[in-house]
Amino acid sequence: MAQLIVRPYTYEDAEEKLQLHQENREHFQKWSPVKRKEEFFTLQGQIDSIKEYLKNSSEDKRYDFAIFLKDDSSHKLIGEVQFVFVERGPKQSCMVGYQIGEKFNGHGYMTKALEIALKIAFQELKFHRVTSEVNPENKASLRVLEKLGFVKEGYLRKNLKVGDEWCDHVCVALLEEEFIALNHSK
């Protein structure tokens, strides 16, 4: 039986991270406002990105996690979860982003991985509120968030430029007490 592992990146993950991003370059770019430079798609680019992730997490600015699928014979990096726009003080909030390799879509892996990551966000990182903004055309991503209890809070018109197009986004959020209540009812 396959098991999902969600953990912070380490330098040892650089080669697998490179492979994930090379294999899914177009798939990941479809929804991302960030146009990656060519250097990102090199081993040194991945080492540099992991170095930046580690620095940001040590400074409580953002948290990046690797998603691994593990079974009896293998251990494969299949996706990522990020908690960004960290705000402390009276807000205790962040925004979550995530992506999974195209060939792993539709198996429930992202829902389970995000559930594990949210447990880390609420219990270990002590966030009160986690938000997300999703292109309404990204139905699969909206379903993942809905299954985990995120509540729609608004709609932003022409919110973010992806490629050459300004895209709308659905705003959703999940509160710590909602996450706890949903997980106790399982």
From TrEMBL:
UniProt keyword list: Acyltransferase, Transferase
Pfam families: Acetyltransf_3
An example Gene Ontology molecular-function term: protein-N-terminal-alanine acetyltransferase activity
Record-level GO cellular component terms: cytoplasm
Gene3D superfamilies: 3.40.630.30
UniProt keyword Magnesium, yes or no: no
Keyword Acyltransferase set for record: yes
Residue ranges constituting the N-acetyltransferase domain according to the UniProt record: 4-181
Family: Belongs to the acetyltransferase family. RimJ subfamily.
Protein name, as recorded: Alanine acetyltransferase
Species the sequence originates in: Gottfriedia solisilvae
